[in-house]
Design brief:
With 373 residues, the protein is an alpha/beta fold. The chain has a single domain, classed as 3-Layer(aba) Sandwich (UDP-N-acetylmuramoyl-L-alanine:D-glutamate ligase), CATH 3.40.1190.20. Helices cover 32% and strands 17% of the residues. Helix 1 packs across helix 9, helix 4 packs parallel to helix 5 and helix 9 packs antiparallel against helix 10. The longest helix has 16 residues.
Amino acid sequence: MERSTDIIVSGHLCLDLIPMMDHIRLSELPAPGHLFEVGPMSFSTGGAVSNTGLALHKLGVNVALMSNVGDDLISRLILAFLESRDPSLTQYIRAKSGQASSYTLVLSPERVDRIFLHCTGTNAAFTSHDLDYKVIAQAKMLHLGYPPLLPALTLDGGQELSRLFERAKTVGVITSLDTSLPDTAGSVSQVDWRNVLARTLPFVNIFVPSLEEILFMLRPEDYVRWYKEPLAHVTAAYLDNLADELLQMSRAAVVGFKLGEFGIYLCGAQKDRFTSLRRLPIDPAAWAERRVWHPAFKVKVAGTTGAGDSAYAGLLTAILKGLSLEDAARWACAVGACNVEAVDATSGIQNWEATQRRLDLGWEVMGFRPQGF
C-alpha cells in the first residue's frame, strides 16, 4: 500500500438482505402462520466496513477495507459486491476457513425504522490480531466500526478493543471509532461499556456515536426512560454535558453525536489535542473548544440502513479536506441525507462534486431541533 491511502475502515462486515415490504403494517408482523407477499430482495454488503467504506469511496477518498469473511456462499456474494465497486477493495479482507459469514436480514415495514435479524458469523472472533499494522502505518487514518457486534473485542473489559487502538496509535495513525446498538437481550448487552470506553478512548482521536448508542453505554437510565424517543427529551445543555463527559474520559480531538432526523452535534476539544491530527490540513483554530449543531436535510426517505455510517463518512471526508467544524457537520448531514434516499446502505451516496452542487443550490433543512438550539 502506498502512503497516499487516506483511511482504512475495519471492523464489522456482513451481507444485508433487504426485502421490499413497505406496504406491510408493522402491527401485522407478529401474527404467526401468516404469509406476507413482499417485493424484490435487495442485496448489499453491510456493516461499518461496507457502509462507511463504500461511502468514503464514492466521495473520492482513497480507502482500504480490512475485515474477515467466511468460506461460504455469503462470503462470495460479499466479495463480488465489493469487487464490483473496485477490485482493490477486497485486498485486505481475509477468508476464514470453516467459518460462516455474517449476514443481516433488514426488515423495514411501513417505512418505519429498521428491524434487524443478525448473524454475527466471523465477526464474533474479530480481535486486534486481525489487523495488519504495517499496512495501517502507511495510512492517514484508521476507522473501526461496531464493537458491540464484535464480541471478542469487548471481553475482559474491552481488553482487545483498547489493545487494537493502542497498537494503532503506536504506528502513528489517526484513529476513529463508531459504535452500534447490540441486541439488548444478548450477552454483549451485559458488557460494562463505561469501563470499555474508559480503557479505549484515550487512544481514539475522533468519536461520534449515535445518541442512542452512547446513552445505552454511559447513561442507561436515560436510555431506558427515553426508550425509542430520546430526541424528544435531550437539550443543548444535555448534549454539552455528555460531550464534556467523553472529553474527560478520552484524549479525543473531536467528539459528537449523530442525531438522526435532528442532525448532528460536534464538539472540538482543547487546542493541544489537535496536534494528533497534524497529518491533516486541519486548522485547530477552526475546531478547538467549539461546538456546533447542524439540522438534517429534507429528503424523501426510502430506507435508513447505514444512514449513521454514511454521515460518519461525510464527516471524515470533510476532516481529511481540512474543512471547518461547521462545514464538517454540514457534510455529515448531507451524506447521511443522500443515504436515506435509497433502500440499501450505499447506492444513494453521490460523489463529492454532486453533493456539493446540492448544497450550493440551497438544500432545505428539516425543522427538528433539540431544545436550546
